[in-house]
Amino acid sequence: MEQIQNLINGRWVAAADGKTFEIRNPADRREILGHAPDSSAADVDAAVRAARAAYPAWAATPAPKRGEILYRAAELLVRHKTRLGIQVAREMGKVMPEALGDVQEAIDMTYYMAGEGRRLFGETVPSELPNKDAKSIRVPIGVFGLITPWNFPIAIPSWKITPALIAGNTVVLKPAEETPACAAQFVALFQEAGLPPGVVNLVCGFGAQVGEPLACHPEVDAVSFTGSHAVGARLAVLAAERHKPFMMETGGKNPIIVMDDANLDLAVSGALWGGFGTSGQRCTAASRLIVHEGIYDRFLARLIDGARRLKLGNGLDPASDVGPVVSAEQYQKVLDYIEIGRREGATLVYGGEAYREGTCAEGYFIQPTIFTDVQPSMRIAQEEIFGPVVCVLKTGSLSEAIRMANDSAFGLSAAIYTQNVNAAAIAERDLDAGLVYINASTIGAEVQMPFGGTRLTGLGPREAGGRGGALDLYTKWKVIYRDFSGKLQKAQIAS
Ligand code: UN1
Question: Is-above-0.90 flag for pTM?
Answer without folding.
Answer: yes
